[in-house]
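Late entry, evening session. Most of the bench is empty. Finally got around to the prediction I had been postponing all week. Sequence below, unchanged from the version circulated by S.P.
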Amino acid sequence: MPERDLPYLAELAAQLRVDSVRAAAQAGSGHPTSSMSAADLMAVLFACHLRYDFDHPDNPANDHLIFSKGHASPLLYSLYKAAGVISDEELLSFRKRGSRLEGHPTPRLPWVDVATGSLGQGLPVGVGVAMAGRLERLPYRVWVLCGDSELAEGSIWEAAEHAGSEGLANLTAIVDVNRLGQRGPTRHGWDTGAYARRFGAFGWHTIEIDGHDPGQIDFALGDACNTRRRPTVILAKTRKGEGVLEVENREGVHGKALKDPGKAVDELGGQRGVRVTVNRPEEDVTPFRFESDGMELPSYPVGEKVATRTAYGEALAAVGAARGDVVALDGEVADSTKTETFAKEFPERFFEMYIAEQQLVAAAVGMQVRGWKPYAATFAAFLTRAHDFIRMAGVSRADIRLVGSHAGVAIGEDGPSQMGLEDLAMMRTVHGSTVLYPCDANQTAALIAEMADLEGVSYLRTTRGDTPVIYPPGERFPVGGSRVLRHTPDDRATIVAAGVTVHEALAAADDLREEGIPVGVIDLYSIKPVDAAVLTEAATTTGNLITVEDHRIEGGLGDAVMDAVSELGPRVVKLAVTDLPGSATPQEQLADARIDRRAIAEAVKRLL
């Protein structure tokens, strides 16, 4: 096909509109009008500029296309049909039970990198994919289709600033400025200049075009490919529902199948059998990876006091030496999380994302698309700001590793704004997640190494203050395991703890033993999945469990234990943070929260 066969491009766009209408009509729901507005943009991209081998979606030279406006999925699936990779029958299975063509795209389709649909996420993830392309020295481009409504999301501007400051010339955002959101006009309507000024302020190359003119679209996409040292945004003025008078540029039709799809198809010129041949990447390339060496984790002598955050930084550097695919991302707190240890050893694999936690997590998701092993760290409290990105990472089945430091009241004087007290609950609810909470430095180092090969979203919680090393170097701590630290056949109760409260539990057990009250202690370092077998044994032998955690009482360690043993009917007492803390020393905080050694001992006595 000639590159600028404008009648062909118009026919292809019309077919994409027809198929978007048909798919939504068959489903009885969907977003055909949002698909129709961007049909010309995607027709020209697929026919003239995208480089992709649909037979080999894992080809490292493939371009990456991300539908940040994931509700326009009928358009994406219509493109796949035009490319010949799905049938018309599958297209019409849109939104049906068991279909790969879900209401919003997910990686159930091999050509979809990440799940989208929560607006404002595609561009930040695209930044991560573009960062990976630079790191692995590959020529692919990243194309992100955005809607104008989602440009109200703060995460879009976190992405815009980072991409601009990094000069990610391999990234192009295509904004479908169709003026209408879900309930009415967008903030700036068709004022593409307003958007251009904002992106331009962040260092982007901006192009304003008529989004229904194939010639202008082709020129803009070519200009983006030829732009150096900065990303490009194409701001395309379009009409929602383009081509069908009943819905074109009309309010109140968002997210609805057309009332008379047959009439709409006729108005669009009827069904067609247009096919598009997407250019395959010419390069035979191998992704660059850094050299690796043997694994030599740090070791700490038993009895020494070491903060688990310190062990995280030193262990991550050791894992980085052993694996050339490990990268680290920071939220401008590397000196506190101790990610700076990795940064000093491997500056080319360390990425400062600044205080932009949504972009921090999104970049990790984007980099894992290309096979990198990202560890992203910040204060546990600040990861709550990025929860939607973490949730969607679970939907994407993304393999990312998150580390939250300065967790719980044990941080001391900084007060409640800095205390991660909700993180365990937040991370436990993510689909397919792993949640780890080590209590000493050697355990932390072992778990950091374990995380490298975990699938899905994994989270490790670290402690600010120094804690005693209780495990010898070199021991393994498998995910889903636990450690029984105190046990006798005469135990009258079992204390279940993790992290900083393990040491309080051990002290309480020693105090109780001196009073003639034997109790067991379990270090439940794996909070998801939990060691159900060990908990079951404790529940059936002692019948009394006391859980203690430096976390809110809802959704954390205590609830994880309850989920595992509730059917067995043991008595369970949950000790956790229930009041709003203030400023105090770490030990005062533990006492005030009633999770220190004295409170644990008193709880055991009350229970017995």
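Two things to note before I forget:
The longest strand covers residues 544-552.
Residues 105 and 115 are 6 Å apart (CA to CA).
Will write this up properly tomorrow.
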